[in-house]
Structures are given as structure tokens and as C-alpha cells.
What does this fold into?
Amino acid sequence: MATLRKRGSKWHVQIRRSGQASATRSFTHKANAEAWSRKLERDLDRGEITSQFNTLTTMTVGDLLNRYAVENTTKKRGADIERYRINHFLDCQIAAKHLSNVCRQDVIKYKDERLLQVHPGTVHRELKILRHCFEVARKEWGIPLKTNPVAEITMPSPGRPRDRRVSEAELSALHLACSHPILWQIITIAIETAMRRGEIVAMQWDHIHWDNRTLHIPDTKNGYPRTIPLTPRAIEVLKELPQTDTSVMAITGNAIRLAWERLKKKAGVTDLRFHDLRHEAISRFFEMGLSVPEVALISGHRDPRMLFRYTHLRAEEVGKKFGRLSAVK
It folds into this structure.
């Protein structure tokens, strides 16, 4: 039996069936509420959506996210970060919404409230997870969702790419503040190779080919292994490290993250992420005169447009290059 009530500016419909969980949904217009209730009751009378009815009325958005975290997130390279974002969702009101009742207005409410707390780029990344979760539920898990509520909204802007470069003064401050040489060696390797933090941690001694001055990186973020040339400074730092294990760096990614945050605070360096060292390395490679294919070989970028997002040349360095070219002529 359908019950129709007006609460504020919304029309709320609730349908109860013996032995089944109730279904509720809200509408702005009464006609839409009545049409939805008639259709659902007609489908229930025909026995067409009994199991679907139970699924949508008993399962919540939080249930979907928990399943997604186990079956999908754990297979991703950035699993820890994604799990953190999913945990945030689970603490929000939208996680308690039943699938029969969740709609784009719930997502819009989450987006608007979240934008008051964090940057649009953060909200964009969070909603991408939720959107994919709904898509997987619809297309792979057989959850009878007719639409994806996140796909029906305007996503916040992902934000402008960071253009943070590291100054020589900041590098000096970081170096002086380092209490353990391993951290400065890691920073140096990051700037000399443009490797990600996870790639640095995963380095193995048998991946280094000293004769060819190259390093093989078999496991990368985009799934494509690459072999990169090593600069003289990178080789120098690598040879300083003790070869007591198969791993080059006897440290975890999380330990690097925590040590990096402590180091920045001690050195008085602000608004600098460890990943910015990858930006710095790529920009330096271009300033050295390397071509786009050469830099892409090192960085692993397969799309030049993404490579340019990581490139932030200093105008004064380009000016020096003009001066050197003029001197040659």
C-alpha cells in the first residue's frame, strides 16, 4: 500500500508490502510521486521486481561502498588513499541512504557541504570513487539501479594543476634539517629520476644495470613497465647505499610520508608535497634540453598532454638558454 505525505516542499511516498521491507522516495512534484508509486505497485503485483524490491530497500550506499572497498579498492595501487576516502563517505549521511531512495539531490547535498570544507579537486576525486562504485554495482554486481545518481550531477572542477617548484633555498633547508641520510638520499633520487614514492620504495638491486646506467621499473602506476636512464648524481647516491638486502630502500612508503611531513615542519618549508619532487624533476629535464620523447621515457607518461601538466619551466632558465644559443651563433 502506498502512503503519500507532503513534508516541506517535498512529496514523500512509502510503499509497504507484507513480508518485505518498505520502499520510500521523495519528489518535488506530487504527480511524479503518484506516478512512481503506481508503477512500483503495478510491478510488484505482477511479481516482476520482488527480489529487486528487497535489494534496493534493504541495501544502503554504505553497503555498496564497503563491498567496493573489498572487491575493487584492494586491487588498486592507491588503495590506502581510496580506502581513506571511502571511510569518509561511510561517516556521512549519504551512506545511510537506501538504494531505493538515493537520488542526485543527495549527491548534490554532499557535494555542496563538502565544498565548504575542502578544495574542489578533493571533492572531484571523492565523487569519482562514488560514481564508479555505482557503475560497478549496476553493470557487474547485478544491483537493479536504473540510474547512477552521481552521473546526473555536475562534477566540481578538478582544479588547476600544481605548478610548485622547489627553490634551491628550500632544498638547502631540507638538507640541513635531515637527521638521517636515507631521507635526503630518497629526496635526491626523486629529483634525479622523477620516480614516484612507491616506485622508489619498490626498487630492487637487480633492477639496476650499472653498465648501461639504467634502472628498470617493472611495476608502475599506469601498468606499463619502463626503463629509465640514470643521471651521474643518481648513480652516485645509489652507490652510497648499503646492499644488505634485495630492496634498495629499506623503508616503507608510509614511513617516507611521515618522515617527509616532519622534515618539512623542521625545515620551515610549507605547501610542498613529496609528489612535487616529480614535477621538479620533469621540469629540470626539459630545462636541460631533453626532448618530449626523452622526458616521457623517464617519467612514463604516455600522453604528452599529461606530461605538460607536470612541466613548469622557469622563464629565467629559458632566457639563459636563449643566451647560450646566441653565443653559439
